[in-house]
From TrEMBL:
Cofactor(s), names only, from the UniProt record: heme
Protein role: May be involved in the metabolism of insect hormones and in the breakdown of synthetic insecticides.
Name of the protein in question: Cytochrome P450
PROSITE patterns in the cross-refs: CYTOCHROME_P450
Keywords linked to the UniProt accession: Endoplasmic reticulum, Heme, Iron, Membrane, Metal-binding, Microsome, Monooxygenase, Oxidoreductase
Length: 139
């Protein structure tokens, strides 16, 4: 969800002036687009290999060092997804069930992925995954 966020871009309307620093202020009434896809791949946040999957990014000590809005799989702040807890719990249960019962393989490499930005992020060259039932094969 970091490298391929479902919602790669979100829009907000500023209801008050937002001071970014001494020189920059976003005036009230402006519409702002936030590039979650770009934030999730920013080398200043995620390191020099920000485009690679690294589960160590989510170790408790790494999370504590990072700004709370550096990872936004369900948006953030008062307008984040109201179903965030349900979504996380549902995904964890589903993934645990699938990984326990099936073996997943793909020949597709990260560099081969073609993605399309829309309301949701999509892989345009298909999800080339083979699924094998673990109960039918020797472990």
């Amino acid at each position: 969800m970091r490298l391929f966020p479902v919602g790669p871009l979100i829009g907000r309307k500023c209801v008050a002036d937002v001071k970014l620093d001494d020189k920059h202020t976003i005036p009230a009434g402006c519409c702002v687009a936030l590039g979650i896809y770009q934030i999730h791949r920013d080398p200043s946040i995620w390191g020099p290999e920000s485009g690679k999957f690294n589960p160590d990014h989510f170790l408790p000590e790494k999370v504590a060092e990072r700004h709370p809005y550096a990872y936004l799989p369900f948006s953030g702040g008062p307008r984040n997804c109201i179903g965030i807890r349900y979504a996380w719990l549902s995904m964890k249960i589903l993934i645990a069930h699938l990984v326990r019962n099936y073996r997943f393989k793909t020949s597709l490499k990260m560099a081969d992925l073609n993605i399309k930005f829309a309301i949701i992020l999509r892989i345009t060259n298909g999800c080339l995954v083979s699924i094998e039932d673990r109960s039918c094969s020797p472990v």
